[in-house]
Design a protein that fits this description.
By secondary structure, the protein is α+β, with helices and mostly antiparallel strands. The protein has a single domain, classed as Sandwich (Immunoglobulin-like). The strands form two sheets. Strands 3, 4, 5, 6 and 8 form a five-stranded antiparallel beta sheet that branches. Strands 1-2-7 form a three-stranded antiparallel beta sheet, with no helix packed on it. Strand 1 and strand 2 form a beta hairpin. The longest helix is centred in the first third of the chain and has 21 residues. Keywords: Signal. InterPro entries: TPD1. One of its GO terms (biological process) is cell fate determination.
Length: 125
């Protein structure tokens, strides 16, 4: 009986170790950061804004959804954002890789306050 308990304990500890190595479980929605700034360029007399979405997780995330009610841009952003009503799905590749940025620009009179709504955290490929 003690041998079975020891085997079970070893299995659980091994799984916990592998999970930590892969980065699973240590990622939170707050680890996906949105930062924006003006580029200094004007397009059709409107300022251009750079948007940077950074994945601070140690694992890949997928299906990053941002709030975007009322968002519009003079320039195309559909290569980066798929807008469905008030939600925008980040489209730049399937995954946001660990410690990487997805950067794009948009043009409008004022900065838009994007918020991360949800994401699939620490997905396997």
């Amino acid at each position: 009986m003690a041998s079975n308990a020891c085997k079970l304990l070893c299995l659980v500890l091994s799984l916990a170790f592998v999970t930590q190595l892969e980065g699973y479980g240590d990622c939170q929605l707050s680890d996906i950061i949105v930062k924006q700034s003006r580029t200094g360029k004007l397009v059709q007399n409107k300022p251009e804004w750079e948007m940077k979405v950074t994945n601070l997780c140690s694992c890949k995330v997928k299906n990053v959804k941002l709030s975007c009610a009322g968002f519009s841009s003079v320039t195309r952003v559909d290569l980066y954002l798929l807008k469905v009503r008030d939600v925008c799905l980040l489209r730049s590749g399937t995954y946001a890789y660990p410690h990487s940025d997805i950067v794009f620009t948009y043009v409008r009179d004022t900065i838009y306050d994007f918020k991360v709504l949800s994401a699939d955290l620490c997905v396997a490929t």
